[in-house]
Design goal:
The complex is a heterodimer.
Chain A: E1 4-8, H1 12-24, E2 28-32, H2 38-45, E3 49-53, H3 61-68, E4 77-81, H4 86-94, E5 99-102, H5 107-118
Parallel strand pairs in A: 1-2, 1-3, 3-4, 4-5
Chain B: H1 6-17, H2 21-28, H3 32-39, H4 47-56, H5 61-64, H6 72-81, H7 93-99, H8 101-130, H9 132-157, H10 163-191, H11 204-214, H12 220-223, H13 232-242, H14 251-269, H15 272-281, H16 286-293, H17 297-305, E1 317-323, E2 328-332, H18 350-353, E3 362-368, E4 373-382, E5 394-402, E6 416-418
Parallel strand pairs in B: 3-6
Antiparallel strand pairs in B: 1-2, 1-5, 3-4, 4-5
The chains are: A alpha/beta, B alpha+beta.
Chain lengths: 120, 440
């Protein structure tokens, strides 16, 4: 059974590229563009890895991260942001992000990080 | 007891006028040798001789007496305190001011310039950190670039992309390229790069901010007119005409004009010298000052915030006035207490509690996210006269001063922790946080 990846990203072209890359690697990918639905989606899908943008409609990625990490079996989270200052990285780490990457990222780095988080 | 330095001041003043010792001595009816002893601080003088020398030297007697330059010495101490690495001995400040008053003034002038430049840096930093247009556009550009880079990476490394996906990628590349161009152009226009202009104020409110900052938040021409025959309106017109950024019929000019009119009214109702004298007597208490000058507390706040200037030993106050919606009507930041321009201020400021109790002056100690302690005075009131059936248009004002300079007696209450605004505040555990920390 392939590992499930939830991409929480409101930019459709970024989400589409990530889906294509991860599907090529055998992941089962779902895209969610609305921050308000992200936690519910992650729980429903029982996502193995969540790729999470910081700036989203209706809900901040940091708030989503905080909620995701209250679950007993919280999925590992790869945090993506266009603002890569040390404070953001610090906050993401405090809230439990497993990996933090800044946009623009390299495809190889994202794929490699997701594989590592999924344990493949 | 420190040695009298009147003689040094007399010598400096005599040399400035190009007088000889013999000439000055003759003019005031004493011997040149006696004047020589005086100038070398070996004879104390006062009374009629001091007045005669002052008259001959075309300066005020108080400038020659040992109580002369009363504001320079405290200002020198303040300048020293602002530069902890300086090793000057504060006990020598009086000697410096007495023997070399012009050099002492130069030090103060340079210190004021440093403060002003710090204020400019704080304002620019504030703009970068808070301007939603800049923040959103930089974020948008990075998102467009990410989409293009990621898609281009796929197209260059994956050989067999299905045709329908390939078409989506090409379409996405075109869309993101167009959006990137539009965003970049908007950003360039906003920063003035496209037009090649150097003025960075983008709105009339920013022009007002720049104008007030450039004038140090005070206007000597309105406080102490050089030509008493000129009306305040004429003085205001002259001030406006001096600034090339305030073209006639522009919104910025109207805004600055309204501010100067208000300033002129405050200056007329609370003349500078009298206001400072009373303020010192009453420990700068705005409620007492309001009663004394028959002015509103809001007007007294404005007047207190305008006092700081070279040569006047008063605390340096910051001021912000906002509408109920939090929109700033007037901003006067301090170097260590920047104020957001666009209304997304820290909700924990005592300023906002003022709206819950209009007409009640409040005094609160706070600790800013920068680590510095301040004392705040808040007062909210209607901007118009009350009318039945009409909801009051409230504005709240917050006057603030570094605790180290504060003339106010602070109640034994714990200082509330505050920031400037959520986006640049490091208090990650703050219950009042409304926005994530997102700093450019």
């Amino acid at each position: 059974m392939s590992h499930r990846v939830l991409i929480v990203e409101d930019e459709p072209n970024i989400a589409d590229a990530l889906r294509f890359l991860l599907t090529l690697e055998g992941f089962d990918v779902t895209i969610e563009g609305d921050g308000a639905n992200a936690v519910h989606q992650a729980e429903t899908l029982r996502a193995d890895v969540v790729i999470l943008d910081v700036m989203l409609p209706n809900r901040s990625g940091f708030d989503i991260l905080r909620d995701l990490n209250t679950a007993p079996a919280a999925p590992p989270v790869l945090m993506l942001t266009a603002k890569g200052q040390a404070r953001d990285r610090e906050m993401a780490q405090q809230l439990g992000a497993t990996v933090f990457m800044t946009k623009p990222f390299s495809n190889a780095d994202v794929v490699s990080a997701v594989k590592r988080l999924a344990g493949t | 007891m420190p040695r009298s330095l009147s003689g040094s001041r007399i010598r400096e003043a005599r040399r400035r006028l190009g007088l000889t010792q013999a000439g000055l001595a003759k003019g005031v009816g004493i011997s040149p040798s006696y004047l020589n002893l005086i100038e070398h601080n070996r004879r104390r003088i006062g009374g009629a001789l001091l007045n005669a020398l002052a008259e001959a030297l075309e300066i005020r007697a108080t400038e020659l007496s040992d109580g002369g330059n009363p504001t320079i010495v405290p200002d020198l101490h303040a300048a020293l305190a602002e530069h902890p690495v300086a090793t000057a001995d504060p006990r020598t400040a009086e000697a410096l001011a007495g023997r070399f008053p012009d050099w002492a003034r130069l030090i103060l002038l340079q210190n004021q310039r440093i403060r002003d430049q710090q204020a400019v840096i704080a304002a620019l930093s504030d703009r970068l950190a808070h301007d939603p247009f800049l923040s959103e556009n930089v974020h948008a550009m990075l998102s467009h670039i990410t989409a293009i880079r990621s898609t281009a990476g796929i197209l260059s490394t994956v050989p067999d992309v299905p045709s329908d996906q390939l078409a989506r990628f090409y379409e996405g590349m075109v869309t993101e390229s167009e959006r990137l161009s539009t965003t970049a152009q908007a950003l360039a226009d906003y920063l003035g790069a496209a037009a090649g202009v150097t003025e960075t104020a983008a709105t009339p409110e920013e022009v007002l901010d720049h104008y007030l900052l450039g004038h140090g938040y005070h206007f000597d021409a309105l406080d102490q007119p050089a030509n008493p025959a000129q009306t305040p309106d004429q003085t205001i017109e002259s001030l406006l005409a001096e600034d090339p950024n305030l073209a006639p019929e522009t919104p910025a000019r109207a805004l600055v004009h309204a501010h100067l009119r208000q300033y002129a009214q405050d200056a007329a109702a609370m003349p500078l010298d009298a206001f400072v004298a009373v303020a010192r007597q009453v420990s700068f208490d705005p409620t007492v000052l309001a009663q004394h000058f028959d002015q509103s507390i809001t007007a007294v706040f404005r007047r207190l915030a305008s006092l700081h200037r070279p040569g006047l030993d008063v605390p340096r106050f910051g001021l912000i006035v906002v509408t109920v919606a939090g929109y700033p009507l007037l901003r006067q930041p301090l170097p260590s207490f920047p104020l957001p321009r666009h209304g997304n201020a820290c909700a924990l400021w005592p300023l906002f509690r003022g709206f819950a109790q209009p007409g009640t002056p409040m005094l609160n100690p706070i600790t800013h996210d920068s680590g510095e302690a301040f004392v705040t005075l808040t007062y909210a009131a209607s901007r118009q006269s009350p009318r039945f059936g009409v909801a009051p248009d409230l504005a709240a004002s917050m006057l603030f001063v570094a605790q180290a300079q504060s003339p106010f007696t602070v109640p034994h209450a714990a200082a509330s922790p505050v920031g400037t605004s959520c986006r640049i505040c490091t208090r990650s555990d703050c219950a009042a946080r409304a926005q994530a920390q997102l700093v450019l």
